[in-house]
Design brief:
single chain, 323 residues, alpha+beta, Beta-lactamase, 2 domains, five-stranded antiparallel β-sheet, three-stranded antiparallel β-sheet, 11 helices, 10 strands, 46% helix, 16% strand
Length: 323
């Protein structure tokens, strides 16, 4: 075989390889584009939220009735009804947990968290339990330094006895008991509490003055949302916290504006110095659960509780009668 024939054969082989490569590339590209296209437009509504794209029309029509986006009329109602409380500075955050729509009023104003900090404290304890560092049945000795008469009844029993961690959690959330919270703080490393605060959505830019955290109503709503979607804790522990918050002995404020059969999982806090009153929670209206958080400064505790219950009632009525 002469040199010319060898080169011709090599050239034909090279051309064949090139054509096969191009053909293969075209086939792969076509398959990829078809796969991407089918994944996007699978069914009729591939660009919509999967929760509504993949259901039948009858179910969609039912869900659509509960999907609210425009809450500006609610904000105007709230503004109208807080005018008479001119001695109270009002911060409000509302969020529809079904659609994600929200409204606010001075929602970025920061307040001293007071007892609302007990929720991430308990979350930190439960995270330690999830990581097998502690057991909820472990007993903790109540020391004299734990006793605090500012909130809760546990201080009346004095010191020198033991309670399980589970019991301390219940006292902390149901009665907002300061003695129980102090005992829990002794068994939780500070970095666990910090990690819980950050992981549940409180920004690192939150103000810290002395030992007190200052957070806005909008930012605190992240903690409630974290529990609702169980983004930080396991479901059983998120459920536990919300269940205990729903059993709180404090029925003034937010729950007072909602009919008794409905569940309201909320945490209130009061700080005498500065006349702070805070009340944040989840109201479980069927089909449209929502976060509602009010933080107030000024006025008396009675007027603050009345204001919160009035606005809570207005919000509930708006949600229930929304068309």
């Amino acid at each position: 075989m002469n040199l010319f024939l060898k080169n011709k054969i090599r050239f034909l082989v090279w051309v064949s390889w090139m054509l096969n490569g191009v053909l293969l590339a075209i086939i792969i590209s076509h398959l990829w584009e078809s796969g991407v296209r089918s994944s996007i437009v699978q069914g009729k509504f591939g660009l919509l939220f999967p929760g509504i794209a993949q259901i039948e029309y009858e179910e969609f029509a039912q869900q659509q009735k509960y999907t609210k986006i425009n809450y500006q009329p609610l904000r105007e109602l709230i503004l109208l009804n807080i005018k008479e409380y001119n001695d109270i500075f009002v911060s409000i955050y509302f969020e529809d947990l079904y659609s994600g729509s929200w409204i606010g009023l001075n929602e970025r104003e920061k307040f001293k968290l007071a007892s609302l900090l007990k929720v991430p404290l308990v979350a930190a304890v439960l995270k330690m339990e999830e990581n097998d560092y502690i057991s909820l049945s472990r007993k903790v000795f109540i020391e004299s330094r734990d006793l605090n008469d500012k909130s809760g009844s546990l201080y009346l029993k004095g010191s020198g006895y033991e309670l399980t961690i589970r019991q301390l959690i219940e006292y902390t959330l149901i009665e907002s008991d300061n003695t129980a919270a102090s005992a829990l703080e002794r068994i939780v490393p500070r970095h666990y509490i910090f990690d819980a605060i950050v992981a549940m959505g409180i920004p690192l830019t939150a103000n810290v003055e002395g030992n007190f955290l200052h957070v806005s109503a909008r930012d605190y709503s992240n903690i409630l949302r974290s529990l609702y979607f169980s983004s930080y804790l396991r479901r059983r522990n998120s459920q536990l916290i919300l269940d205990l918050l729903a059993k709180t002995i404090y029925k003034e404020g937010l729950p007072a504006g909602v009919p008794a059969p409905l569940i309201v999982a909320h945490k209130m806090g009061y700080w005498t110095e500065g006349s702070y009153y805070l009340d944040c929670g989840i109201v479980y209206v069927p089909h449209v659960p929502y976060i509602f958080c009010m933080m107030l400064k000024g006025g008396t505790m009675q007027s603050q509780q009345k204001l919160i219950s009035n606005i809570s009632y207005i919000v509930y009525q708006f949600i229930s009668n929304y068309e």
